Amino acid sequence: MNILILGNGAREHSLAWAVKQNPKCSRLLVAPGNAGIADIADISTINIENCDEVVKLATQEKIDFVIIGPEAPLAAGVSDELKNKGFLVFGPSKAAAQLEISKSFMKDVCTKMNIPTAKYSKFNDLVSAKKYVSKEGVPIVIKADGLAAGKGVTVAMDLTTANKALEDFFNSSNHNSDTKVVIEEFMEGEEASFFVLCDGLKILPMGTAQDHKRVGDGDTGPNTGGMGAYSPAPVLTKKIEENVIKEIIEPTLQEMKKRGEPYQGVLYAGLMIKDQQARLVEYNARFGDPECQALMMRLGAQVLDLLLATSTSNLEECKINWADDHALCVVMASNGYPGKIKKGSIIDGLQKLTISSSQMCFHAGTEKESGNIVANGGRVLSLTARGETLTEARSSAYDMVKIIDWEEGFYRTDIGWKAII
Ligand code: AMP
Ligand code: GLY
Fold first, then answer.
1. What's the pLDDT band for 118 if we cut at 50, 70, 90?
2. Mean predicted confidence (pLDDT) in 396-406
3. Is 212 within 8 Å of 219 (Cβ atoms)?
């Protein structure tokens, strides 16, 4: 099969790495990719949010299967356009991806189906939003109602922060009369990510993971796209998982079907767990990054069969062969991330890493320049390792981190702390 993967993160590098190991994959093309992906796949530098460019590439390269990694092409309708042209695609329709794209859409589905989630209200003017916050008190959570790469959420512990987030939102140049802010009750607990493959008819749970959203050790500082992850997530016990399927996933899929938009792809539920009860924080219409890197290490080549079965509505015949092990991923990011970063710094030490099926270095924001690998984004590398225990996986991942010689980068030193303590 000729396979095309869309995306340029470490998530897509890990997907490409797993897919490539499956004998069904005869040719792998990734757009736009990065310097690490270029070592294992052909690269095309098209704009993956432009439907015409993607369809043209898939046609020219005689692609049999397209895997969409990030949310932006889903929001641009790339999945729909490819399917209209007869391509087999992994990635939900734009309408089904509203579960991620629009926080207010997702909340409406929750209300309709009585799905456990934070109480909320939505506003399109500053005065009413501020009034609501004063009435509800802090802590409170302010969310822009659209895609924001994990950075559109403010968890406000005091009124000044809450009001500033609202002012920034309503005064921003992106704001117009259609954009809304969602204000939510603050939920306490431990967060976990749960992945489910949905083929429009059947579902197949695809594992659990925990991410580290805050930039600093001890979960301090602003939210990021994710600074590290591990899989499985011990907090998500079998019992909680069963309840999540019954109380959250199934009602959501039922409602999507009823709305004429059956969900086909991976559904990623961000959960808050407290006292053995899970509530929904958010949905994503794609794999998590960096959770995907840990999942792919544990799944390997079978991933391609699972994604194909999802896209052809054949999940009923599928079973996942889980290795009884753990994987942990440490993200290295450019100094300044999630704020302003400088591009172009040289990353040394990569050639000293011993790469294997239990130690991988997945690239995100990297490019090749005069023979060097240089950083060109916020999150840059995902050092991911497997181990019989999480402690082993962690020390193996940090062994790799130590080999990287990159002064302009940083990483968290405590990935896995909740599960390991
Ligand atoms: P979201 O983009 O909705 O996942 O939000 C990003 C992060 O903000 C989540 O992973 C949580 O860490 C935090 N967060 C979002 N909503 C809430 C909430 N209602 N209560 C507590 N924390 C939240
Ligand atoms: N790791 C969080 C996300 O992918 O949204």
1. very high
2. 98
3. yes
Q: How far is CA 115 from CA 22, 142, 270, 306, in A?
A: 38, 20, 13, 27
**What is the position in ligand 1's atom list of the atom closest to the CA of 103?**
3
Which among 123, 141, 155 is positioned nearest to 184, based on CA atoms?
141
Residue with CA closest to ligand 2 atom 3: 288
Buried b (16+ CB within 10 A) or exposed e, 81-102: bbbeeebbbbbbbbbbbbbbbb
Whole-number Å distance between alpha carbons of 290 and 362:
10
Q: Ligand 1: does its nearest atom lie under 6 Å from the Cβ of 211?
A: no
Contact by Cβ (8 Å): 206, 266: yes
Which of 282, 283, 289 best tests ligand 1's pocket when mutated (most atoms within 8 Å of CB)?
Answer: 282
pTM over 0.90: yes
Instruction: In the chain, list all ranges with CATH 3.90.600.10.
Output: 326-420
Query: Token pair of 206, please?
Result: 């695809």
Kindly report, residue by residue over 259-280, the tens digit of the pLDDT.
999 999 999 999 999 999 999 9
Residues of the chain with CATH 3.30.470.20: 190-317
- CATH architecture, domain 190-317: 2-Layer Sandwich (3.30)
Task: Determine the topology of domain 2-93 in CATH.
Answer: Rossmann fold (3.40.50)
119-185 is classed in which CATH architecture?
Answer: 2-Layer Sandwich (3.30)
Q: Say if CB 120 and CB 185 are below 8 A apart.
A: yes
Residue 144: exposure state from Cβ atoms within 10 A (0-12, 13-18, ≥19): buried
